[in-house]
Structures are given as C-alpha cells and as structure tokens.
Known about the structure:
This protein has three domains: 3-195, Nucleotidyltransferase, domain 5 (2-Layer Sandwich), CATH 3.30.420.10; 208-294, DNA polymerase, domain 1; 310-379, HRDC domain (DNA polymerase, domain 1), CATH 1.10.150.80. It is of the alpha/beta class. The relative contact order is 0.09. The protein is built from 17 helices and six strands. Helix content is 51%, strand content 8%. The longest helix is centred in the middle third of the chain and has 21 residues, at 220-240. A six-stranded mixed beta sheet has the order 1-4-3-2-5-6, with helices on both faces.
Amino acid sequence: MDSGDLEKIPQPTLVTAVEHLVEIVGDLKRAPRLCLDIESNGFYAYREKVCLLQISSPTEDYIVDPIAVADLSSLGPLMEDPAIEKIFHAGEYDVLCLKRDYGFKFKNVFDTMIASRLLGVKELGLAALIEKHFGHKLSKKLQRADWGQRPLTHAQIRYAQLDTHFLIRLADILLEQLRQKNRLEDAAEAFIELTEVEPNTKVFDPEGYWRLTARTQLTGPQIGCLREIYHFREEQAASRDRAHFRVMADDLMIRVAAATPSTMDELGAVRGMSPYLLGKFGHALLKAVARGLAGEPPSQGPRTRVRRDMREEKLFEALRQWRKSQAEKESVEPVVIMSSEVLHEIARLAIENGADPLSKLSELKRGRYGEALTGVIKTQS
C-alpha cells in the first residue's frame, strides 16, 4: 500500500466559523475517543500560537482553523471530560500549546509515542509507525510549513488531516501490546503526567548570548559587541513578530561581533551578510558594534550549572549505570525506567541526613525499583 491509497480517505471537514464549531462539538461530545494534533508557527513567529487544530472522531476528521475561529472555548469541556479519551502522538507540545493559548485542562489521554517508547519501539515518529502498522507512506514535505499563512492549501489540509486520521487504530494496536507486555500501569502513570505539564511564559534573557556555542572564540570587546547585536536582534524579532533566526542567525551574529566592522563595506564582507540584511539592518548593526566597543565588556557569563557534591556525582553515575543495565533487561530506552532528573534527585536526597531518597518516586516505580535503588545507594555509602 503506498501514498496513492491515501487519496481514498474522505476529505476532512474544515471549520472556519464559531457557529460551525459549536455544531460539531455537539457531535464530538458523544464520541468515546477523539484524536488531537496541532500545527503552530513557532518556526516563523516570535509569538508562537496554535494555527490549526486537527480532531478525528471514530467516524470523521475535522480541521479547525483558530485564525478564523477566535473562540475555541466550546472545546474546553471535551478536553476535560474523563469519559472521552483524547489520543495524541508526542502530545506534550500539543498539550502545552493548548493550555497556553486557550487555558484547556486535560483528563484521560493516550499518547501513541509514549506507548511506543514503553514497548521498546526504536522508530518513534508518527510516519514510521503509520507505515509499519498500516502500510501508508506519509509525506514529510510540509513539516516546516508556515501554518500561520492563509489561505491554507489543499496539500496543507490533507497533511494535517493524516496526523490524526490513523491514531485511534494505532492506539488500539499499542494498547493490546501494552497489555501483553504488562506495561499498562506504566502507560497510565505516564499519561497522567502528560495531563499535568504546564507551559512556561516566554521571557527574554538579556544574558542569553553567553550560551551561544561559538561565543568562546570571542575576546572581551567582541563579547560586548555580541551583547549589543543580540539585544538588537531581540528588539527586531519582537517588533516584527519573527523567529530570532529569521532576523539573524546565531553564527552570523558571532561573525559580525568577531569582525567588529566600522563601515558598511566591512560589514558587507562578513560571511553570510546578505545584501538584504545589509540594506535592512546595516546601519543599526554598525551602531550596535560601536556601542559594544565603547562600553565595558561583560566580565563573565552567568553560572549555568550548580556544582554538585562529589559524593552526589559519584552516586548519580552509579544510578545511571544501574538504569542502563535495567533498560537493557527490559528492552526499553533508559528514560522509560527513570529520567536523569529523578536520578539526580535521588542522589541529592541520599547524601542528606534523614532524607528519604526515594520520596519523589511514584508508588509504581518505588514498588518496582525501590529495592534495587536502595542497594545501589548502600554500595556507594
């Protein structure tokens, strides 16, 4: 079965009016399961937003256009209804965006990527899973499309539809495999954790230029120039609502700061400085460089990592080796056993007098791995 067979799938219902959305919600609330996915414009815009919401019921596919339908509040009760299972693939990003933009709350979710990871599947992408289980080859050409642009093309609508069309059947297959491998409890715990993720408010870090990879090759005055260029790019990205790298790439900022140009000719000679950028931002960039050279260069970058106790580091490494061995026994990725953050927390608590190092573990994880973890801790005491 190839991509040509996908044309046999009926066209989705496109929703571009509040009245139409309210109408289909009446149908959706009677469905026992709904599949959800979003498309956003984070690759293009400074202020990312949900630009498309795909919903599939057992009988129909819907494409909701949030740019045309500003009020999606009628969908809120569906997301929070424990009687309706919401199926995602790699749903953390979707849940975060829907919470951020619409304040939705979620109950009763199933995530096909989480399920696949628990089953030890190596290729976790949706396209790979669809091809494996149903023989369809999904196109990836529109993964980086600008979903904030209108009108939507037929190809975009079709691409978006297929992200949810197969999820109910895929979830059924994975659910049975989870049952066979005694991973249902793990999945239930992970799905609850998915509903609890919370979005972070985007805040500009004025010291963020210290984290640019190639920054280490710059001297003090050049770092001052980079700081001014970095701040200039932020202002332009915010005012134009464009992604940072679409104003100026990180490596180009580094090269301009290293060159410390004082004329348009010198700036134009910097590798990667296009005629468009030179004409658009040239004079402003020269002023930024001049400010950087005239001001006091930054003395040092912010501390990005808290130095841990050597005993804690040693214990963490022992726990990490235990996790690796356990993951091999269970034929899963190490993160399925326990995240590195949890291992660090166990190590931290273990060296504190009177603290229970396993206090942050769920009842499931504690019952399954508690004895082994306690053994690792004792060997390092």
